[in-house]
Specification:
By secondary structure, this protein is of the alpha/beta class. The chain contains seven helices and six strands, in the order E-E-H-H-H-E-H-E-H-E-H-E-H. 24% of the residues are buried.
Length: 208
C-alpha cells in the first residue's frame, strides 16, 4: 500500500510503501476485542480489600448468653449484621491478569493497523518536529494534519523527540507513544495515527 508522505504543513513531499503484511493483514474483530479486554484487565490493579469477620478487631466474647434473653442468639459483635462487623460477599485483593500469546497480540495489532490503513487514518510525515516546545505550535500542526480528530503520535525514540513530547502533553485529544510500545488500546481509542518515516521502520522491525 502506497501512501503520501507529508511535511508538518500538510504538503506532500514523497510517497512510502506500507508493508502489506502489517497494514493489509486479515482483520479479526474477535482477536482485537480479546487483546483489548486483556490489556484493560491487566491494567486493573486489583488492590480493593475489605475485612471479613475474622479480620475485624474486637468481638472476642459472646454479647449475651445463648438462651433466656428473648433475643436472637449471637456469637460475636463482629458478625456482618452488627455495626462495625466484618463484611461478606465483598471484594478482596486479587489479580485480574489475563494471558495471551505474543503472536496473537501482534496479530491483533496488525488487524488494528490494517483497519486504520483501510480508513485512510494513517498520516506519515517526513520529519516530526516543532520549532520550540510550545503546546500552541503542536496543536496547530495536529490541526493541519488531522483536523479535529484525536491523534496518536508515534515516535521511534523519546530522546530525539523531547520537544514533541513536551508540546503534546497538554493536548487532551492527542498522545505521544514510542512506536515500540504500540498497543491495541491506543490504536482503537484514537481516530488518527501520525508517524514519521523513522517510526515506520521500528514498526516493521517489531511486526514485520
Amino acid at each position: 500500500m502506497e501512501v503520501d508522505v507529508v511535511n508538518m504543513e500538510g504538503k506532500k513531499v514523497s510517497t512510502v510503501d506500507l508493508p502489506a503484511s502489517i497494514f493489509e493483514a486479515p482483520i479479526s474483530i474477535d482477536l482485537m476485542h480479546q487483546a483489548f479486554v486483556r490489556q484493560m484487565a491487566n491494567a486493573h490493579l486489583g488492590t480493593h480489600e475489605t475485612k471479613t469477620k475474622s479480620q475485624v478487631s474486637g468481638g472476642g466474647h459472646k454479647p449475651w448468653r445463648q438462651k433466656g434473653t428473648g433475643r436472637a442468639r449471637q456469637g460475636s459483635t463482629r458478625s456482618a449484621q452488627w455495626k462495625g462487623g466484618g463484611k461478606i460477599h465483598t471484594p478482596h485483593m486479587h489479580s485480574y491478569d489475563q494471558s495471551m500469546p505474543r503472536k496473537m497480540r501482534q496479530s491483533a495489532i496488525r488487524s488494528a493497523l490494517s483497519v486504520k490503513a483501510a480508513e485512510e487514518s494513517i498520516v506519515v510525515v517526513d520529519e516530526l518536529k516543532v520549532a520550540e516546545p510550545k503546546t500552541r505550535l503542536m496543536a496547530g500542526a495536529l490541526n493541519t494534519l488531522v483536523g479535529n480528530s484525536s491523534a496518536l503520535v508515534l515516535i521511534p525514540a523519546t530522546e530525539s523527540f523531547e520537544d514533541v513530547v513536551r508540546s503534546t502533553n497538554n493536548i487532551p485529544d492527542a498522545k505521544v507513544l514510542n512506536a515500540g510500545y504500540l498497543n491495541i488500546r491506543d490504536l482503537l481509542v484514537f481516530e488518527k495515527i501520525i508517524m514519521p518515516v523513522s517510526a515506520l521502520d521500528l514498526i516493521k522491525a517489531n511486526l514485520g
